[in-house]
Every structure is written in structure tokens, then in C-alpha cells.
Amino acid sequence: MSAPRCPKGFPMRHPPELRALWLACILITALIVGLVAGVLSWAGGMNAPTAVLTGSGAFSAGALLMLSLVKFATAAAD
């Protein structure tokens, strides 16, 4: 049994089901990081809009960092 291939004949890195699982785990983790950052900044005395911006920044940074780490960790060796 050979590895699944993309339409142009290149081998796929991961099946789509595994990519969806990775994405779900990353987004849930980033959501938790963003919520914690927002709540901590609000509890630290910032007003609500600033706390929301802090949480959204933490969510974005966490999601991008984790996506980059997964891509690095699962990259095929050349």
C-alpha cells in the first residue's frame, strides 16, 4: 500500500483526518491560552477592551507558534 498522493502526484504529508485533529488541538489550546491571558490582564486592573485585546493577541500568537512547531516537527526530511 503506497502513501496517499496529492492531485499532482506529490506524496501527502498527512491524511486530512490527522490534519483536522492537529488543528482542533491547536485551536483549543490557543483558546485556553487566550482566555487565561485575558482574564489575568483584567484581574490585574486593565479595562475590559484592553483585556480582550490582550487575550486575542495571546490566542493569535499561540496558534501561529503551535502551527509552526507542528509543521517543523512533522516536516519530511529532504
Give a verbal description of the structure.
There is one protein chain. This protein has 78 residues and is an all-alpha fold. The protein has helices spanning 16-43, 48-73. It contains 2 helices and no strands. The chain is rod-shaped and about 55 Å long. The two termini are 22 Å apart. The mean pLDDT is 86.
Average residue pLDDT: 86
The proportion of residues in beta strands is: under 5%
Number of strands: 0
Ends apart, CA distance between termini: 22 Å
Q: What form results from the Cα inertia axes?
A: rod-shaped
Helix-residue proportion: 55-70%
Order of helices and strands: HH
Sheet having the most strands: none
Unreliable parts: none
Summarize the structure.
With 78 residues, the chain is mainly alpha-helical. It has helices spanning 16-43, 48-73.
Descriptors:
78 residues, mainly alpha, rod-shaped, 0% strand, 69% helix
Blueprint of the fold:
Elements: H1 16-43, H2 48-73
